[in-house]
Amino acid sequence: MLRWWLAIAVLASCGHAPPAGPETGTTHATPVAPPADAAGPPGLDDDLPRLAERSVALYAQLAKVLGPPAATDCAAVARDLDKIAADNADVLAANAKVLHAGHDKIQRLKNAIEPHQDALDAAAKVISESQTMKTCSEDAGFAKAIDRLLGES
Length: 153
Description:
Number of domains: 1
Helix content: 55-70%
Order of helices and strands: HHHHHHHH
Largest sheet: none
Number of strands: 0
Strand content: under 5%
């Protein structure tokens, strides 16, 4: 089941950077880098135990939305999926960074996930057997929400 999770994580890595915001002034000041001692805590992609926990929690949320009972209101499910994607944007971005970092970091994430493997397997099983996925797979709004969640759009 870990391979399934990694496959989903690979899909998540296909996202696009958000568009740049509009300029708010007429000057173009160069941002000043913060001092080295003000770096703050490590990013989620460098805190692999925390990333593992958050990733497993994300899949538990997906299982809750997509699992039984089967939903018939695909638009409502799409809204729920959009909320999950928005609430977990940092997790999706961190997983993408880890996957692009190479084998060593992927292996370290895999090791961090190992203590949570049972929970991840349970969520993956619910998602893969989801009647809601089957029911809503042809719904354009649902498909767009799944794509957004997996970083496709």
